[in-house]
Amino acid sequence: PPSLLSPARLDLILLEGSKNRVIWNPTMKQFFTLPEPQGTKEGQCHPR
Question: Where are the domains of the chain?
Answer without folding.
Answer: 11-35
